[in-house]
Amino acid sequence: MSKTQIQAARDGTVTPEMERVAERENRDPEYVREQVAAGQAVIPANRHHDALDPMIIGREFATKVNANIGNSETTSDLETELEKLHTAVHYGADTVMDLGTGSDLDEIREAHIDHSPVPIGTVPLYEAVKQAGSPEDITTDLLLEIIEKQAEQGVDYMTIHAGILAEHLPLTDGRKTGIVSRGGSIMAKWMEEHGEQNPLYQVFPEICEIFAEHDVTFSLGDSLRPGSLADACDEAQYAELDTLGELTRVGWDHGVQVMVEGPGHVPMHKVAENVERQQDVCDGAPFYVLGPLVTDIAPGYDHITSAIGAAMAAQAGAAMLCYVTPKEHLGLPEEDDVRDGLAAYRIAAHAADVGNERPGARDWDDALSEARYNFDWREQFDLALDPDRARSFHDQTLPGDNYKEARFCSMCGAEFCSMRIDQDAREDGEMEAIEGEDGTDLEASPAAAVNRPPVGTHRSGDLPPMADHEGDEPLEEPSDD
């Protein structure tokens, strides 16, 4: 059997995946190997995912962003899900989780793996409920069967809800919002009905063997994450975290890569505490943060409430951020919701990388600032996180080509544009001229690929076309650069 990434790294081998990651991160391949060997970073790369362009998740590398997609019983089909996948990759998702609970799950999952250049994650427990008909009818054999099938299909990482134990359930009794994790609530119901321990915990070594065979990465699920600020950092959450630390070490002992999922709703002053505690309890395994939402008052805007917490978590050491869309708590995200959620989270991830002084991360900001000051509108659009959105907003009020040369926008107009006034004063000798270099050279920047424009530049999987957005420029395929 071929070695997993962590087994190869421990043996001193730099794999082709590590070489590609080093290229994308502008890091030395040997450093990548050391981080994977130590369990401080993971490269989700199932042996059967042929379309994959490898990436890395770890606190010493650029912050990554995951996008959740998936159908439901009432909404979405294969074509729609592939459009969501393309939208996610186009707007910069580093991984995509297929959380579908509707029909044709195998067909959709296999299509995603065939087409996606980014790692695909799943939650096999959802399919188990679908097949069993109810949580209490799930069997251990069914769980292992589904996990092995998805591993053979090419899923790169799976959320496994093995950390919630029977003894943890009474700790949730005083909560304001109970158990809000889908997987957590399913396993809690199973344990209550059967009076037995979590079967995923009981057969965790067998799951490790399946994962090692196909090189699937664990994403240890946070079944008892807080679903409201009132429940953050409580005894239930931290009791499960201790179990996740134990399972992390079991996974490593079996030669399997591990990352750990984190809290959903956490007030701002406790975000760093959550990250630091996870890093300590789980021996530095990458922290995959869901949110966290820093306030509960904004349904319809939770991509914003959560991106605030996500930026803080990433600056504190979280390795990957799971985006939240405006539809969170309200409905199944559609294509535009995926776009808005990714924009919020790419901003959060980049802001944290700048705050953490990752090499070259601020060069993108500097280049765009130079274009803005020089009224180079076309360059400003090209450098924008979402060029289509920036161009569309500008052209709503000043659509003509002549306005691409204008020294103002519609917010201030020509008379009150501060940058024009500043430039004129310097040209007239009233203020000292700004002296500097010719401009920021992004081609020479040491920044990782995710911290340089454009986003969504994975080596191509065979992604189907993505629908144009009304009022936007036609969308191009991700490049092979």
From TrEMBL:
Catalytic activity: 5-amino-1-(5-phospho-beta-D-ribosyl)imidazole + S-adenosyl-L-methionine = 4-amino-2-methyl-5-(phosphooxymethyl)pyrimidine + CO + 5'-deoxyadenosine + formate + L-methionine + 3 H(+)
Superkingdom: Archaea
Entries under InterPro entries matching the protein: ThiC (IPR037509), ThiC/Bza_core_dom (IPR038521), ThiC/BzaA/B (IPR002817)
Binding site for substrate: N68, M97, Y126, H161, S181, R182, G183, D222, S223, L224, R225, E261, Y288
Chain intervals with Acidic residues compositional bias: 429-441, 470-481
MF annotations from Gene Ontology: 4 iron, 4 sulfur cluster binding; phosphomethylpyrimidine synthase activity; zinc ion binding
UniProt region (Disordered), positions on chain: 1-29, 427-481
GO biological process, one term: thiamine biosynthetic process
EC number: 4.1.99.17
Protein name: Phosphomethylpyrimidine synthase
Gene source species: Natrinema pellirubrum (strain DSM 15624 / CIP 106293 / JCM 10476 / NCIMB 786 / 157)
Classification lineage: Archaea, Methanobacteriati, Methanobacteriota, Stenosarchaea group, Halobacteria
Name of encoding gene: thiC
